[in-house]
Write a structure and sequence with these properties.
The protein is α+β, with helices and mostly antiparallel strands. The chain contains 10 helices and 16 strands.
Amino acid sequence: MISTKNIIAGIQDVPAEWVFENYLGLAEKLTGQDVKIHSVFQTEKTPSMFIYFKSGDEYKFKDFSSGKQGSKITLVSELFNLTYGEAVNKICADYELFLKDNNYTHVDEYKIQNKYRVIDYEIRHWTNVDAKFWTKFKIDSKVLDEYNVSGLSYFTMAKEGDPASDIVFKGNYIYGYFREDGSLYKIYLPHNPKKKFIKVQNYIQGMDQLKYDKDYLVITSSLKDLMAFKRLGYKNAESVAPDSENTMIAEQYIKSLKKKYKDICVLFDNDEAGKVAAEKYQERYGLSYVVLDMSKDLSDSVKDYGIQKVKEKLHGLLTNVFKK
């Protein structure tokens, strides 16, 4: 530990952990652990803002509720609506003022906490239970195969380097989402009330299946909605989905996709969170969005109203957007 009591030379002398502890009012000192709190940018019931540390870097944040993320400087810039330079000046001034009356013990070496990761799984054959679940959304085995969805008999999670931490999950309704190269990127647990998805790696869902031979692209909120969209049978539109509504597709991918399609439209859930997420795509990337005012999301709408009724309503919405 190093005790700091000097006037600082610049932003590099301000510990990132102090910035997060100070401006977010954290109750615990950051020593290498990840912290989850309620968003400071908007009201939410379930905490979705993460303060995290990666080896070789410094503390950063990601707020899934608002889509904001970045460094200690980005945090202060977003909190106080400041430019990058103004945020740097504020952090330095506030830290110097803090040091006049306080000691700050900077963590010289972080204790990185091992996180649970998926280390094993087993693919199983489809069952009648699976058929009953997926066909509710009119998603058949052909579409599931096209998007590399498989049933899993079990999967195991463990902390790296700690065999005693193994946890095995078994039962019905466990589905693995795979890429074309066979790598697992997500596990879907539709009947788990606490955690429906376990992310294994970053991936824009549906990218492997794009042919780039259609005029339009629709960004849905999930792979299930994407597959439901596929079942609507549009001849001139393809679809992709981000990791979740709260994780925006990066700008470089949007720029690339814009070059390949005449137009792109966002179709997310019709609840408040979905509308907020869609508005972010409009504000940041200039993409139009539509709200399907039926059930909560596209796949549930297909389940509740059938393919034909959903297609009739959605066709009008998409036509109005794409003809602009």
